[in-house]
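Example 249, ligand adenosine-5'-triphosphate.
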Amino acid sequence: MSNNSVRNTSAITVTNLNKTVVTQEGELTILNGINIEVKQGDSIAILGPSGSGKSTLLGLLAALDTPTSGEIVLDGVALSGLNEEQKAALRKQKVSFIFQSFMLVDTLTALENVMLPAELAGVTDAKQKAQAMLERVGLSHRLNHLPKQLSGGEQQRVAIARAFICEPKVLFADEPTGNLDSVNGDKIADMLFALNQESDTTLVLVTHDLHLAQRCARQLVMESGHLSEPAAEDGQHNSTSEAQLVEAN
Ligand SMILES: Nc1ncnc2c1ncn2[C@@H]1O[C@H](COP(=O)(O)OP(=O)(O)OP(=O)(O)O)[C@@H](O)[C@H]1O
Ligand SMILES: [Mg+2]
């Protein structure tokens, strides 16, 4: 399918999304009336201060968590109609997630961690693919290290290789360059946008990295559970200005 024919397909539609949790201090509203439409092949950066609800939103969009109210439609499927098993199947089929805390399997080596989703998907040359992916993130010398034997930035790159191995339809990444130096950060950003261009993977990135955010087609800002799109509100068609992003961060 050409990019043009898929551009108008909705990858994610969010309507009136709310997330409230009960804490010892009472009810806490984390997300308040979120609405977004993301097209297939789009790239979105979500910025905003710590504690504003960015990771919570990403978890809901990826069907890892359940909203208090509202609807999320992921690649044509309404998440509210699915049970846990169906959500897991949908994630496996369409979604990859790079977690803020990496979530590598402690007992598996770097290579085994990256192979895992490919093996679960029944890919026959999972090991070769995983090796090639780890090479791309600059870790061919660390294939047999366990996560605890890797630095934070190395663990992040293993998590990125694992997220890429099955060419997901939608890739969610929570601070994908948060632990990387600028050279490795740029390399990972290049990989993210190559996947976006070559495989038409939709990117939804949470980031404090303004350089990465500006490479995305759209920039959204989360503030106290409210999401806005400054560029759209200004009636501009180009990306949000650096000054706006600095302020949002
Ligand atoms: N299960 C929960 N129970 C209580 N409070 C929660 C829960 N999950 C999140 N929160 C609170 O909701 C707020 C938003 O959390 P979230 O992790 O989404 O923030 P964030 O924008 O990703 O922040 P950061 O940039 O620091 O990663 C935080 O104040 C957090 O303490
Ligand atoms: Mg977070």
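Summary: The longest strand covers residues 10-23.
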